[in-house]
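SUBJECT: A protein chain and its fold
Encoding: whole-number codes for local backbone shapes
RECORD BEGINS BELOW THIS LINE
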Amino acid sequence: MAKKAILMCTCSGACPSMKDINFFELCERIRLELPHDFLVMHPRLCEENGECLMENLLKNDGTKYYVLACKEEKQRKLLRDGYQKAGVPMNEDTFYPISLSFKNTDQVFDELRKALEEEKEEKLCEALQE
């Protein structure tokens, strides 16, 4: 079964649109309650050292990366270089963006939970069709 990795960008805690998110509470809830292989929290994935992290962390091995960060459209643009440096295509099999903008901790957690459940249901449907 494919790995599930969660990459979380906190925008250094400075983005006003993320003021209602308690990142430490969110990480702990994810760790305890949601199925995943690993979780990484970084202050700015779109900056040079974030791209370096992605280059060394992302693998083109079937892992799906659930990325909690800014708006989905911005993620595609700002994280593209990190994916390219890692040699991982940025497509629906490897990249699942979830926006943190103007949400609170519970809303982000629920959106990630639903995304992980949808993925599980899709895999089950695929297995039944084989």
The helical segments are 23-33, 48-57, 72-78, 80-86, 105-129. The first strand starts at residue 4 and ends at 9.
